[in-house]
Amino acid sequence: MNRQFSVGVFAALFAAFAFSLNFVVPFIIGDFSTFDFALIRHVVSATVGVFILFSERETALRHLTFQNAMAATGLAFIGYVGYFLTVTGAAIYAGPVIAPAFLGLVPIVLAVIGNRGQASLPWRFLMTPLALVAIGLVLVNGTAFTADSLGSVRSLWIGIPLALAAVGLWVWFAIANQAALAIRPAMPSGIWSALILIGGGLQMLVFYPVGAAMDLFQLPKLGFGWEAADSLYLWGTSLALMATVCGVWAWNVASRTLPVALAAQLIVSETAFGVIGGLVVHARWPTMMEAAGVAVLIAGVVLAIRVFYGQQAQMNEAIAQPS
């Protein structure tokens, strides 16, 4: 396996792991809301982005154009702030189980759209990994539409459209981000990630007065002081560094080195990591259906890597042969 392909695969899997840490947020923020957590997380991430630009200021100044800043800010809204708001709304109205079940559509939709646009792999090779991913997602989310899950639903008419909007935003972000990087081959991944992080932080700060007026934030009631919000600050900073900063950077590396269709199937491992993390938080063993779902998801990811690497090796061999 060549080095560039290996780096891309590792980066995509690391991004999936980093993003999966979001699933533990409800269990660690106490009386604070997910909006409080998002505010701290994005502001810390933006601060890291400013530090990156400052530490690499000579390089950053060459790429810090109005066009690049606007493109990164737009991507920050699509893939982070807008995605967060739709996911949170979906969880509020459709419940904590049904919303993630719909988000399982992301890797399948992204793989199909990505392969259609790039034609990186013949469809007959893509069908088996996609089928395994689909089966794994069904097994993992098998309890989403039971009577118990539906009992916690406030409004499917609002929650499901929000969940579908989240799917659309993430697919849009993945494709648009790769396209943006493709037309900026000289743009360092760290600088691009920093611009996206800063854009997301500024947008959350702009959203705060609106959200506070709607009572979406608990910080004004519970207090901004360290004694009242120490756990929020500690966890928000920790996950900002790991899930946002490292996750964004790793995804940008993967976007540069892998076809969208493969990256989409690798990001599905976020679900597997999320299930495992949830089991750890709840201190229980997986059910037979959950274990089977994770196993099938992993099988689909491994097969996708093997198929894409085999196809790439054949193309490289054909190029190397004299005509």
UniProtKB/TrEMBL annotation:
Keyword Cytoplasm on entry: no
Domain of life from the UniProt record: Bacteria
Keywords: Membrane, Plasmid, Transmembrane, Transmembrane helix
Bilayer-crossing regions: 7-29, 35-54, 66-85, 91-113, 125-144, 156-177, 189-212, 232-254, 266-285, 291-309
Name of this protein: DMT family transporter
Lineage, broadest ranks: Bacteria, Pseudomonadati, Pseudomonadota, Alphaproteobacteria, Hyphomicrobiales
